Amino acid sequence: MSNSLSIFSNILSKYAATLSSGKWWLVILELVAGCSLALLVTRLASRQNSKLPLPPGPPKEPILGHLRLMPSENQADVFHAWAKVYGAVIGLHFLGRNVIVLDSFEAAHDLLEDRSFIYSCRPRFVIYELMGFVPVLTFLQYHTAEFLKHRKMFQTFLGKHESAEYIPYQAEYAKILARNLMEKPEKYLWYLEKFTTSVIVRITSGYQIVEDDDTYIKIAQDVSKGIGNSGSPGNTPVDYFPWLRHLPSWFPGTFYAFYARSIYEKIRRVCDVPVEYVRKQMADGIAQPSFVYHHLDALNAEVEAIEDPEKKKTLYEEELVHIAGAAGTMYAAGGETSYATLQTFVLAMMLHPEIQNKAQAEIDHVLSNTGGDLRRFPEIEDRENLPFVECILQETFRWHPVLPLGVPHRSIKSDVYNGMFIPEGSIIFPNVRGMSLNEHIYSNPYKFNPMRFMSKENGGKGEPYFPAQWGFGRRICPGRYLAETGLWLAIATILATLSIQKAKDENGKEIEPKIEFTDGLVSQPCPFKCNITPRSKSAATLLVLHV
Fold first, then answer.
1. Cβ atoms within 10 Å, residue 40
2. Is 477 annotated as a binding residue?
3. pTM metric for this prediction
4. Which residues fall in a coiled-coil region (predicted)?
5. Cβ atoms within 10 A of the Cβ of 187, count?
């Protein structure tokens, strides 16, 4: 790939005069020629490294490879369909890159877990860099000082034991969510996002969201929109050829670069606002414990020990950038994925009232008095006594993973897997969606069926939970314990107090929703109408009395 980039660099050095003279058509002709030459060089170089075959895939065209076959939408589903023909490891080649799609958990585990020293790196995410997501753990290169620094920042704050400290926040906000849904069910999307944002912002910066129009919610919505409209992660023309970001907006392939720059200031707020808030609170002596406070306090102590004013200033400014990037990672990644998961849960409950009723019967057995009245909210200690509610959470993860293609990995050296050659620099997509549809593991995989996870002794199928939604190897989500606990509390509280049903039209007829999901890095259900009401008088009373 380095040969390809050097070719393009030489070509681009000649373009300034040509563009200024108005002969833009010469630029296009030369770029086409340059692309062809670069693709040929890359292709020949990769084949010289091994006589073993590349992973199989659809037939490709000369020069363009699989470029014209690449789906513009529903990529994960298309890849899964290809996997049924070509196998669980698919090889694609286009724009000078080898792309490997892993469609089975076994293959993903073998490579991304067992050989994580080869496959833990990332491709460069130029679009996200232009948007302002720097430095962000999700996109940092492995084996770098930055990556190790950020991973340590999260591990010391979001481990399994540490995450348990935030359960009171999550439980409190879950109750507020249920009350808001009861009072204003038509705004369910807003309140789901308010819940996930409130939790993550409280833990990140100690800030407490109260009002519905809070600035932090607006920031979360800007991030959600930005990610949703920025193309497939690491898979846009600008990500493949970073030099495109320097060309005019009318030039083919530059759209996402201009879009990313246009929302830079909005996106940077997700990193900078929490840090500035905590710094002000610390200056006023009223800062609350939080992720940012923890790291700022440690930084202040480190800086205080330095006598040289210039070194002190340099260290503070450098470390502040990392704290802001880590805060943005928590804020954006933690809130967005949980928000999408809760939307999927609401859709599933609306479509399957029999499952909802079964879960509520289990909850009533644990939480209701002898008269059948709900006497309290679910607590985290109830989790082991509510196995079917747990199965609903796990099936929500599996039924439609919120990161259908995960976040792509990159191989740092050539490798051989099951007789197939994987060249150095290959982009590896774990097809999480495809893994969730594996018929050899999950029976009738397109059906939402929590009983698949129950033991056979309890009438279930004894199928395994679906861990792929958290990622793989050294790139596994550092906030998975925090996220899963918060989602369980939200789901259990909603099921205990509310009933989710299909909306009705003016004639009282139920409206059948379309089951459609958005594309992009994070996938969520397309907006749908639903009807949310309190389950009982005792549930409504419990919500009203809760302050």
1. 14
2. yes
3. 0.89
4. none
5. 13
